[in-house]
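Replying to the earlier thread about multi-chain prediction with a worked example.

Input:
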Amino acid sequence: MTLRALLRLAWREGRASRRRLLLLVAAIATGTAALVAINTFTANLRTAVSGEARSLLGADLAFASRTAPTDALRRLADSLACAGAAPCDARATVTTFGAMGYVPSRAGVRLVRVTAVEGSWPFFGKISTSPAGVWPQLQSARVALVDPAFLTALGASVGDTLALGALRVPIAGTVDHVPGDVGIATAFGPRVFIPGALVPETGLLGFGARAEYDTYLRLPAGAEVEAIADTLRPTLRPERVRVRTVEDEQRNLGNALERLGRFLGLVALVALLLGGLGVGSAIHVLIRQKMDTVAVLRCLGGSSRQVFTLFLVQAAGIGLLGSGIGAAIGLGIQQLLPRVLGEFLPVTVPTTVSWPALATGLGLGLWTAIAFALIPLLGVRKISPLATLRRPYEAETRPPRDRWTVLATLALALSVLLMAVVQAGNAMRGAAFAAGIGLAIAGLWLSAFALVRGLRKWFPHRLSYVWRQGLANLYRPANQTVSVVLSLGFGSFLLATLLLVQHNLLRSLRVDGSSRRPNLILFDIQPDQAAGVDSLLRARTLDPTPAVPIVPMRIQSIGGRSVQDYSRDTTEVEGRPAGWALRREYRSTYRDSAVASERVITGSWWGAGPDSAGAPVSISVEVGLAEELGVSIGDEITWDVQGVPVPSRVTSLREVDWARFETNFFVVFRPGALEAAPQTLVTLVRVDSAAERGLIQRAVVERFANISALDLSTVQRALDDILGKVGAAIRFMAFFTLAAGLVVLLGSLATSRAQRLRETVLLKTLGASRAQVVRVAVAEYLALGTLAALAGLVLAVGSGWALAQWLFETKFALPVAPMLVLAAGVVTLTVGVGLWSSVDLFRRTPLDALRNE
Amino acid sequence: MLRCENLTQAYRSGAGTLTVLQDISFGVSPGEFLAIVGPSGSGKTTLLGLLAGLDRPASGEVWLDGNPLSTMNEDERAALRGARVGFVFQSYQLIPTLTALENVQVPLELRGESDPARAHALLERVGLGDRTGHYPAQLSGGEQQRVALARAFSTQPKVLFADEPTGNLDQRTGAGIIELMTDLNREAGTTLVLVTHDPELAGRARRILRLADGRLVSDTAA
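Result:
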């Protein structure tokens, strides 16, 4: 047979079952659409990041540190940017710190992120403000620019006066977009921009305040930025100055976004694979129904190979059409993605067509259809021409276990692995993902199989007839119960897992109304302010916790070896303390007893009173940090407390429940050594009404400008917001898998259509009313949906528990009501889709039963 | 028991209408054994469907046990079938997911009744007392048709419609089925309406209606 003849025959043969084949096309299209959409989006994102790279940093080079830049650093910067000329207009300094901002004429106060700009930063990229063009005023005038969110929160407007510590300046406008800024960041604290020269006037950067200092440089044209950065890093690292370049920024951001894109892409791949599964299962049944056709073709002289090719061409046609339609839809959906993900993106993502993404989608769609169709298609070769004469009742077309089947199975497994690797962009992650999919599918298949088997074994014989008939339909010959349960179950599984993760993350922070746990935290309290704060709170009949002292410090040496020594040492040694843990600033406390959120696991807590004179002070270290530092009981750590060395000895290791809204510490000192050290205090208090919390924060800030307050409900809202948006992005993709599941359901309904028609009409002939026939169908789809939801939820509880236990390290809780709502949703969808596709079956008159013979 | 007057059935096909049955009138008395014969396409099955209330005629009327079918809606006709009518089909039409015993019980259960003992007795009567738990796929064609017969008699119908009941069976098995059907007919006093193009089978009826091109061409007593 020529190729043309083959194609023509494939087309003619498929004509009769076009409706069914179209559903298979839809199954492939759903997954391809998701894949093309997300891959195009990721490609565009990559283009946008590299296109805007310079404006992401706003400079060629930046120095970042936790302490104010030293004169030496300034001189170094000036020499790099302006070859030493003064004043240097190619250097800018940006100081960022948290503070309480308010508008005196309005109620309320907000914890804000103050950004003090000195110099003409950013050198690249444009900050958009409204009114437009007010940004340069920060360089000369006494004004502030704020996030629109700040004005909204306080009900203030442009022109009002901003109070920031002791500083009072008019708000000249709002900042709508800063290159490189992520919209979602404002959830934790709106930004307030002030001229750098006004920082001293706020009086806020006193002892204990945390600020970040960035020195931005525009280098002369032709400067070798990376080379300069590489030579500077070794000398600046011990000074705790980080060197940032455009390339770093692009790499970090690119990596983070790439990961997000890859992850969503893998979810899309799941949708495609489910579609493939649906195709495979439908073709299995289709082949069984096409036995007569096959046998006739064989009788007429077709070789088994020709017949096999004929159906393979049909499968490829399904794949080609499906991936083509899917790619077109995907390009449409791609326009929506920047809206769903916009808040996480520091760049504006264009929505142009990415040809590689399109080609990948088309290729994967086509290949999925063929790879999944191959195994059931192999059964075609074994259909004998004799079947035209004598067709065995309930003939099996199960593919024979020959080497071709083994090869096809291997090819399928390899395809899935390869697709996962392509989509994950990394062999290890791809393999892990493929294994994960395999595990989830195996788990779902097992639970679906067990449920169907269990139903058959313990069949509820006591139910009324319509229920028994509906349930019995689940294992009618050529049923696709397991594949439908699997594909619908996977969608439910993904959605339920998301729900569980979100619930468990938020639950750990939730303080319910009846709880007496504190919900307002006041920090940066200077020792001489403690009494004043306490009496202010008590005057309002509140009961604050005793103030907890916080002493900032750094590690000077461990076991006699200095941190500088460690930093210089580039040889990797097992157990060597990690760089960050060595160099970071620690905020430690001292107290004589352990608190509720911590538990000593090795060593013992100290008794009352200080250590004996001259001995190193006893400390208790959090177990994770101890591991990172490579220290254990008895080891000595010398701390640098504001320039004073304080030797200590580890006497216990603690486990800390960080999720509790309490003051928790990596390192706790035995009282007696730190009392005289410079320190700040923290106090927590429970305030029931939100309005009262607002009033108290304002009262505290007006009297003690440097004290910051954090309202737990604000943190919760911010987290709710962020998790909600991340969740929305993932849910968006997860819905594709549910959609693929529904398409598979529709496909299986279409394949079993003739049989269901026969059954419906037969029941009517035997005296069933239309209501009874509908109830039988409802029972069937209800059972199918319930099985799918149950299988999905069972697996989701397992994975949710595992994630809570090992990834988020919180206690697992099962939100029963939302899970039931989800299950009810899946069941309703299944019943709805099932009935909708059967409406015309119910209308057929019983005479069809006779006519169809 | 069964009467039809001026029964006409036509289907729309393409531009024109295709008349399948034209102006058929006759009556059947209780306990009678009637065969409807005619070549393929003569309208036998259509007539059977109209008599059993499986479809509505274009014009004319059918009285089944005194009930005028055209005044009844689909569910009422279904209820009437469930109570007074039994069916046997050429391709048995058993429900594949139910056992033989369960298949026999379906018509009763649709009425919300249950009588396993009777179903059992009927299967005994058709010689399948030891196969009650088998699924259709585990039974031969003849055995399946016997289950279908047991099902047809499970509601003690007043009329039994049989559409080529032996068409898919070999001669010997077919003869056995006919034997069984006429015996049951006699025992229960059921009216039997049989559609067939097998002259030998028709010969066993006491009255034969001949159809050709949708018209009644003869009505003879055997």
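The mean pLDDT of chain B is 87.

Feel free to reuse this layout for your own posts.
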